[in-house]
Design goal:
The complex is a heterodimer of chains A (515) and B (505). Chain A has 515 residues and is mostly helical. Chain A contains 20 helices and no strands. Helices cover 65% and strands 0% of the residues of chain A. Chain A starts with a helix and ends with a helix. The two termini of chain B are 20 Å apart. The chains are: A mainly alpha (515), B mainly alpha (505). At the A-B interface, helix 1 and helix 17 of A face helix 1, helix 4 and helix 19 of B. Chain B: Pathway: Protein modification; protein glycosylation.
Chain lengths: 515, 505
């Protein structure tokens, strides 16, 4: 009954977004190009083709997915499958692409249903709107980020997050092998999910391969089960073989890897994801400006700061040491280490795994190389599950989700999309606040007053960037200013949520040590 | 969850749907030389801004009435003038006399769409919210559901935000009138309705019920004393409102006369294009336009309309309750739509508004009619390139409303007010009328879907190029006729018993 209504809601929402057939985004052309490549060219040319600038940079399973879609696409408009027809955008093409996103979103609906079944309800209530599973379903299916990135822009994140959430749900239901299989498939669909691979690895090793724990939750080495480890290994390797096998046989593995991991791109994405490196860049720029003003530095001696140009290039920092990919990797691993250690030393079941997953996603988001703002969804969506079960997590979710979603605003920059993004953001924020507050009513407010002030500050930033800024003369001289302001302001919120999540984790550690 | 947050989310959702539909094409997009309703509205902004009031409705060298001449009452002109002032501030090219003909750009489209949205936000949506909260019964959750379905009615959204018109203003003002009358503020209600009349003359479809209700109410209160006072108050309000709206045109009788000639073009025929009313459907069998002379066509339609409207109006006069008023609004507007002169397919919106008011009381029949009314305008949507929004909004409305009202579960004979039919079919007592109604509903929806699909996917037979639009309008006509009969029977049957009313709540 519940899921029936949700599927209706989500289908209608998804298809409502079909009405927005006017919006143009580069991702649209990207996926059309991939449909063309996988359909018209033989396997050996898939990762070599570069007549369009949007080369295939997702792992092979996604290429197979596009190949499958291309057969349906042929019924709609065969012209879109021509590799040379760049920027082909006929109405049937647009219709087909949007329909494909809506249909693949059905997997997200299914995954949400599975997650809702795992939610623990403290006090079952008869009112449908007050039940945690319903609130979770709305938070997942109507997530502003997914709506905007998938349906207004154009990607298949709903489908991919559906696989992730399904994998999480399987772990919550103690079906670990299925969860591992789903995650292996997911990794081969989009390799960005490597961000959360440490969580999976440590959890499966610790809680699945060691069948029992000692009474104090430490490792019982004797209970190691080689059969389980072997099962996991077989699953992962077979998925990778199916996906990468043909390319290894053709000897194309280095080319594929270079396409998947293009480290030539800069430290920050063009729109500056709100992570630690955005703050680092701003710090660098501020110090430079201060130094020049106070005559401590000579302007001519400094290397040209290029990351503020808004383009994707190699970047050099002017004053502070430049960051290379290996530095980001080390920082990421360091940030993720305590969480991984905690589920190794003292596993708390599937929910501990989920918390570690969120921390891995957030840590990689904050310290990763060339992170896109969309990656914040990897932390927000799994956190929704924790948010409907615990008060503190609900408070953190509100801060992280609102900040993360607001940081997606620069992705929609045309005037036609302005009302859409504001309306959708208002709807989601209003719903998440009122629903979570009513769910955890009776113990004071979910948010600290300072957090409320910070979130209200988002409104000020929004008005300044969308309305005030275009009317000022700075639009010509400092074109990156709204992006900078948005990134920096949101980075503060994201870092704060990260710290708070860690505090909760460590507090749980201390509590369990005392016990 | 608190009601205010649910209402806000509802309203935000409906505004999002409206803006989503706006991003699609409009009528006459890229089709010179005449373009469509969008260009007509832009042209009126140009005319009202650049020319003095005396020239707005006259054929002069600067104002060519053949190219979208003003044919709505003065309030539309004033609204266009206001929009034109704002347009001038943003980009003067949009309203430049003569040079801006056929002006099309994405910025301009955004501006025009924004004007529709602002008008809706100021007039239609608040009226709908207040109506659902003060004049419909049920728990607050039921009221929110009613509001959601009311605001998601696809026909109005597609015409206003797709095809491009300002029906939200006139229907919104009429709704304010209904709201005021429901709350007992008769003078304010009459003022609101007079404003609606002065915005679009089609609101005359609703005029008879307003008149009969207020007259009946005054008579009930006693023609000597309070009733007379009420009558005088209303009359004065109406006259003053009309005078204020027509002020610039009252200085010269020829001015007023010209405006009247423009808004009631009796020179045009019995019907134009394909519309789901009696005359167009009759035309399939008998070519009525060639059989009768123009004058006799006029008299025939006048007589038929009067006959169709009379029963419901007299019933309202004798029993001026709010329930009767709502039903009379439906019956009157449907009767006018079916039998009147020069009816456009968009006029079905005038019947849809009162039916929306009945969503809470008679959900299944209301949803059925609203779906049929949207379907009747389908050829127009196809012409404007609005197929995808049409399909999406209709599906969403159908699924959402049947789920939220549990329309198919609460469809017993009592709840569908089929008592009158039971009396008609007294010779067949074992007939399960409720089941028949449900099956007719299912078959009708499937037929609508099938007709939509065939109109889009298949080519018409070579000798009958208008085959599908005619089929659509005849199908819709049968629905509307059935609805007229049904609502007349409901108006004449006794109100539901206390027991069944408690069950509904």
């Amino acid at each position: 009954h519940l899921s029936c209504m949700h599927s209706k809601c989500s289908v209608s929402v998804g298809s409502l977004c079909l009405s927005l057939s006017d919006s143009h985004s580069t991702d649209f052309e990207v996926h059309r190009n991939w449909l063309a490549i996988t359909h018209s060219l033989p396997l050996s040319r898939w990762y070599y083709e570069n007549s369009s600038e949007w080369t295939l940079d997702y792992p092979p399973l996604f290429a197979w997915f596009e190949f499958g879609l291309s057969h349906v696409a042929r019924r709609f408009d065969p012209d879109m499958l021509d590799v040379q027809r760049l920027q082909h955008r006929s109405p049937p093409t647009v219709l087909f692409q949007r329909l494909s996103v809506v249909c693949s979103d059905l997997l997200l609906v299914f995954a949400t249903r599975e997650c809702c079944r795992c939610v623990r309800e403290q006090k079952p209530s008869r009112d449908l709107l007050k039940r945690p599973s319903f609130i979770l379903a709305v938070l997942l299916l109507w997530n502003f980020g997914l709506l905007v990135v998938d349906h207004v822009h154009f990607q298949y994140n709903g489908f991919l997050f559906g696989v992730l959430l399904l994998s999480v749900a399987k772990h919550l239901q103690s079906r670990h092998l299925q969860g591992a299989l789903l995650f292996a498939v997911l990794l081969n669909l989009k390799h960005i999910y490597l961000y959360v691979a440490p969580a999976y690895g440590i959890y499966l090793l610790r809680s699945f391969c060691f069948t029992q724990d000692n009474t104090d939750s430490s490792v019982r080495w004797s209970s190691f089960s080689p059969a389980r480890l072997a099962a996991l290994g077989v699953i992962v390797t077979s998925v990778c073989v199916v996906s990468f096998g043909p390319f290894v046989l053709l000897g194309q593995l280095p080319q594929v890897l270079s396409r998947l991991f293009p480290f030539k791109r800069g430290l920050c994405h063009a729109y500056w994801a709100p992570n630690a490196w955005a703050l680092y860049n701003v710090l660098d720029k501020t110090l430079v400006t201060l130094g020049v003003r106070l005559k401590l530095l000579q302007e001519a001696e400094l290397p040209k700061a290029s990351m503020t140009g808004g383009l994707v290039q190699e970047s050099q920092h002017a004053l502070l040491p430049s960051i290379s990919p290996s530095v980001t990797l080390v920082c990421t691993l360091l940030s993720v280490l305590p969480a991984a250690l905690s589920i190794w030393l003292r596993p708390r079941g599937a929910r501990g795994f989920l918390r570690c997953l969120v921390l891995c996603a957030l840590g990689s988001f904050l310290f990763g190389w060339h992170v896109h703002e969309k990656a914040v969804l990897m932390a927000v969506l799994p956190l929704s599950i924790l948010a409907v079960e615990s008060r503190e997590d609900a408070g953190i979710f509100l801060v992280l989700a609102t900040t993360g979603h607001y940081s997606l605003f620069p992705l929609l920059f045309t005037p036609a999309e302005l009302p859409i993004k504001i309306l959708l953001m208002l709807m989601f924020t209003l719903y998440s606040f009122t629903a979570l507050t009513s769910l955890f009513s009776g113990h004071g407010s979910l948010l600290h007053p300072l957090e409320v002030v910070y979130l209200l500050g988002l409104v000020v930033v929004a008005i300044a960037c969308e309305i005030v800024y275009p009317l000022t003369p700075w639009q010509q001289t400092l074109p990156f200013l709204p992006l900078l302001a948005t990134s920096v302001y949101c980075a503060l919120g994201v870092c704060y949520s990260f710290v708070r999540l860690y505090v909760i984790l460590l507090r749980q550690e201390v509590k369990s040590k005392q016990l | 969850m608190e009601t205010w947050s649910l209402v806000s989310i509802c309203v935000l959702l409906c505004v999002t749907v409206r803006w989503g539909v706006s991003l699609n094409s409009y009528s006459g997009a890229g089709k010179p030389p005449m373009f469509g309703d969008y260009e007509a509205q832009r042209h009126w902004q140009e005319v009202t801004y650049n020319l003095p009031v005396q020239e707005w409705y006259f054929n002069t060298t600067d104002n060519d009435l053949n190219y979208w001449g003003l044919d709505y009452p003065p309030l539309t002109a004033y609204h266009s003038l206001l929009c034109a002032h704002i347009a001038k501030l943003i980009n003067p090219e949009w309203v430049e006399l003569h040079k801006s003909r056929g002006y099309e750009s994405s910025a301009h489209k955004l501006f025009m769409r924004a004007t529709v949205l602002v008008a809706d936000l100021l007039i239609y949506i608040p009226a709908a919210v207040l109506y659902c909260f003060y004049l419909s019964d049920g728990s607050s959750k039921k009221k929110v559901c009613t509001l959601l379905c009311f605001l998601l009615y696809p026909g109005l959204i597609l015409i206003d935000y797709g095809h491009f018109q300002y029906n939200g203003v006139s229907l919104g003002l009429a709704l304010w009138g209904v709201l005021a009358l429901g709350l007992g503020w008769d003078a304010l209600g009459s003022m609101a309705f007079s404003l609606a009349l002065n915005y679009k003359q089609m609101e005359l479809y609703h005029a008879l019920p307003f008149f009969c209700y207020l007259l009946g109410k005054s008579v009930k209160q006693g023609l000597m004393g309070r009733g007379l006072f009420l009558l005088v108050k209303i009359a004065v309000t109406v006259v003053v409102t009309f005078a204020l709206c027509w002020l610039p045109f009252l200085s010269d009788p020829s001015q007023a006369l010209q405006v009247v000639r423009r808004i009631f073009p009796v020179a045009r025929g019995l019907f134009e294009d394909k519309v789901a009313n009696t005359w167009c459907s009759l035309n399939v069998l008998i070519k009525i336009r060639s059989v009768l002379s123009a004058d006799s066509q006029l008299y025939l339609s006048f007589a038929c309309t009067l006959l169709a409207v009379l029963p419901s109006s007299i019933r309202l006069l004798t029993k001026p309750t709010f329930w009767q008023f709502k039903l009379a609004l439906v019956n009157s507007s449907l009767a006018f739509f079916l039998f009147s002169y020069q009816v456009h397919e968009k006029s079905i919106l005038l019947a849809s508004l009162p039916v929306c008011l009945l969503l809470n009381d008679l959900p299944l029949m209301a949803i059925w009619f609203l779906q049929a009314s949207t379907f009747s305008m389908m050829p127009l949507f196809l012409k404007d390139g609005l197929l995808v929004p049409y399909v999406v909004t209709s599906l969403a409305f159908l699924l959402l409303s049947t789920y939220l009202f549990s329309a198919l579960e609460h469809s017993s004979e009592d709840e569908l007010r089929l008592g009158g039919y039971r009396k008609l079919f007294f010779c067949l007592p074992s007939l399960d009328l409720a089941c028949i109604v449900r099956w007719k509903f299912y078959i009708s929806i499937v037929a609508m879907a099938a007709l939509t699909f065939t109109t889009v996917a298949m080519a018409p037979p070579p000798r009958l190029p208008d085959f599908f639009p005619v089929l659509v309008s005849v199908f819709a006509f049968l629905h509307f006729l059935g609805t007229l009969i049904y609502f007349n029977i409901v108006q004449f049957s006794s109100p539901p018993s206390r027991k069944s009313q408690k069950k509904n709540n």
